[in-house]
Every structure is written in structure tokens, then in C-alpha cells.
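User: Please fill in residues for this 104-position structure.
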């Protein structure tokens, strides 16, 4: 709750929430005003199926999310690391999104 008080997403600048489990990685762009998920990518579905929770795979997942955001005409976002430290897999997701052209 302490983090969610400070980080808030809108339609123009959604919140990129990262959730990681031991086996899978999920990233979604959320519009908190409307309470909707705009874009979601995970290591379980679509083109990114089969990726693991590793730094190189997390960067690919971030790039896939960035491309989906660009196609939805969203160029800026707020990064929500969901309580995880900003290193390793979480950092790789952010860097992958930045490589795709999303401003975090």
C-alpha cells in the first residue's frame, strides 16, 4: 500500500506492474483511473511463451511489452517494481521496455 500511494497510472501514462514467480514473469500496463489493464505480456502466453525468469529472457519480455505499448500509441509509462529490488530480472524488464522506445 505504501508503494501504491506514490505510483499511479493513467491512460496516457500507465503503470507497468511486474510480477514474478519462481517459474513465470508477468508484466502489465494498467490504467488506474479506469481500473483496466491496457496491455499484458507474460511468459505463459503468446510469442513470449516458454521464456524463463532469467535476465536475458526478462529483457525480451520487456521488449515485447514495449512493442505492444507502441502499437497502442503509448510512449510513456510509470514503472512499478511491485516491491522487488531494482536489479536482475526486474531491471532487465525495464531496460527491455526502454529499448523498445518506451519512456520510463
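Assistant: Residues filled in for all 104 positions:
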Amino acid at each position: 500500500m505504501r508503494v501504491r500511494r506514490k505510483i499511479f497510472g493513467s491512460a496516457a501514462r500507465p503503470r507497468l506492474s511486474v510480477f514474478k514467480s519462481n517459474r513465470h514473469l508477468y508484466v502489465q500496463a494498467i490504467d488506474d483511473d479506469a481500473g483496466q489493464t491496457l496491455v499484458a505480456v507474460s511468459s505463459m502466453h503468446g510469442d513470449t511463451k516458454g521464456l524463463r525468469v532469467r535476465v536475458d529472457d526478462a529483457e525480451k519480455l520487456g521488449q515485447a511489452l514495449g512493442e505492444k505499448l507502441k502499437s497502442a500509441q503509448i510512449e510513456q509509462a510509470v514503472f512499478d517494481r511491485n516491491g522487488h529490488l531494482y536489479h536482475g530480472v526486474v531491471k532487465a524488464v525495464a531496460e527491455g521496455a526502454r529499448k523498445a522506445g518506451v519512456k520510463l
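For context: The chain has a mean pLDDT of 92.
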